[in-house]
Design brief:
Length: 476
């Protein structure tokens, strides 16, 4: 205990001065401490591990989000019929739906990409994804997904929280609320945006919404200090730091009203902050990885180094017990993203060049470590692109039918579930809403989306609202 802290100061000032902040704000009130799953009450440990509703296939999730809307017919959903309609408007039978910047009467733009069958499954993938093509038998393509908004931010919120409005808990928050944490020394839910900027939707994409703040995602940055304000002041030694934490814990125990979940979460966040001071730097220390692994993820290439580094960090976090990791490709409006309005080929050649090799590396690395079987890998976006052109070479937003995919964690590899019409415009078979997508992810984690509820404003809220069907065809 520092002997120069005057007793006349407020308790809040005392806590701040004695611990230097201790990452409490940066940790978003995260709590931790591993606990064996049991039927006993969680008590003062908000993130104690909890039993799922049924036997899970997956224990953890890496959620890769491609910000901006990749083009399904240029990556995963070949549409040769587009060539027949090149230079003509879509037929009236399609309804010629309007999008954000197009009226529906624009002419059809065929894809110039080459599709080939890969793996034993013969899954068709574009030449933009040569590395991912080597993992075709691990992929479960959901080719008839749909969302409800053509505008980025609302669509981002929907894919993250099931609603187009901000203020609702994110998928990662619901997962950690339902399952708790496997990690004693790291946050349960971590988020890694591009260094240049966060997605257009911002922090609400990983918010805990009306759930207790302990379930909010923790923003991690590259470098030796991934969480801001975590490192203690230079003049505070380890023993002094530990004594300060112990004193804070005693004071909280003396003054904690029974059932005060907010204080429990706050106290647990300080304890986690102390443990993270030692364990977080080790988790993000890539010097312990082999040269072969670094090359596999593309850390030796400027094009792939950033995304590859973040995926490698994600793997290190997952194997240390982190439950849910979100990694973004693409940032806000002023940062490069998958929003191919001007030139779909130029945009996707650049963006695929950043992520294709690292994603294949992640799947390969997880498989050889025996982790892919119980790690659910998700590749998704807020919407897809239109089959008709914008400006001659680009494509506008299309939420009516597009592709997302799952791998590992009980997803049925080497499979394409669902189909869009001959133009790639709308889903026509095994159509999957965002609620269905979320229900399936929860199911693979052992959670029944109808039972995973939280009482808020007199209503039992859930991630899937009043919808959601598990996509049985996507399951092993």
């Amino acid at each position: 205990m520092h002997t120069h802290v005057p007793f006349a100061r407020s308790r809040r000032e005392f806590l701040f001065q004695s611990g230097g902040g201790l990452g409490g704000i940066a940790l978003n009130w995260l709590a931790a401490r591993d606990a064996r799953a049991s039927d006993a009450p969680v008590g003062r440990n908000p993130l104690a591990a909890k039993k799922p509703h049924h036997a899970p296939k997956a224990k953890r999730v890496i959620f890769m989000f491609m910000v901006g809307g990749p083009s399904q017919m240029d990556l995963f959903d070949p549409k040769p019929a587009l060539a027949k309609w090149a230079g003509k408007p879509l037929p009236e039978s399609t309804g010629r739906p309007k999008s954000q910047f197009t009226s529906g009467g624009e002419v059809v733009l065929p894809s110039t990409r080459t599709f080939k069958k890969h793996g034993q499954s013969g899954l068709e993938l574009s030449d933009l994804l040569p590395h991912l093509a080597t993992c075709a038998d691990d992929l479960c393509l959901l080719r008839a997904c749909w969302s409800t908004s053509t505008i980025h931010a609302p669509a981002l919120y929907e894919l993250h929280s099931g609603r187009t409005l901000m203020g609702f808990p994110s998928l990662g928050s619901w997962v950690t609320y339902g399952l708790g944490s496997e990690s004693e020394n790291l946050p349960a839910y971590c988020v890694m945006p591009q260094p240049e900027g966060v997605p257009e939707g911002g922090a609400p994409c990983w918010s805990a919404g009306f759930l207790p703040a302990v379930y909010q995602g923790t923003l991690l940055r590259r470098g030796p200090n991934p969480v801001q304000n975590l490192k203690p002041p230079a003049d505070v030694g380890a023993d002094e730091n530990r004594r300060s934490f112990d004193l804070v814990a005693k004071l909280n125990a003396l003054h904690a009203p029974p059932g005060d979940s907010e204080l429990d979460a706050r106290a647990a966040s300080y304890e986690l902050a102390f443990r993270m001071q030692r364990h977080a730097p080790d988790a993000v220390d890539l010097s312990k990885e082999t040269a072969e692994t670094k090359a596999l993820y593309g850390l030796d290439d400027a094009k792939t180094a950033d995304f590859g580094t973040r995926l490698l960090l994600a793997r290190r976090l997952l194997e240390r017990g982190v439950r849910f990791v979100t990694v973004y490709s693409g940032g806000g409006p002023l940062v490069t993203q998958w929003d191919a309005h001007d030139d779909v080929n130029a945009n996707h050649e650049k963006m695929c060049g950043h992520v294709d090799k690292p994603i294949a590396a992640l799947l390969t690395d997880l498989k050889r470590r025996g982790m892919l079987k119980d790690t659910l890998v998700v590749w998704c976006s807020e919407f897809g692109r239109t089959p008709n052109s914008q400006g001659g070479k680009g494509r506008d937003h299309n939420p009516l039918g597009y592709t997302m995919w799952l791998a590992g964690g009980g997803a049925k590899g080497g499979t394409a579930v669902g189909a869009t019409d001959e133009f790639g415009l709308k889903g026509v078979d095994h159509v999957a809403s965002v609620n269905d997508f979320h229900a399936t992810i929860l199911h693979l984690l052992g959670l029944d989306h109808e039972q995973l509820t939280f009482r808020h404003s007199g209503r039992d809220e859930r991630l899937t609202d009043v919808g959601g069907l598990v996509l049985d065809a996507a399951l092993e």
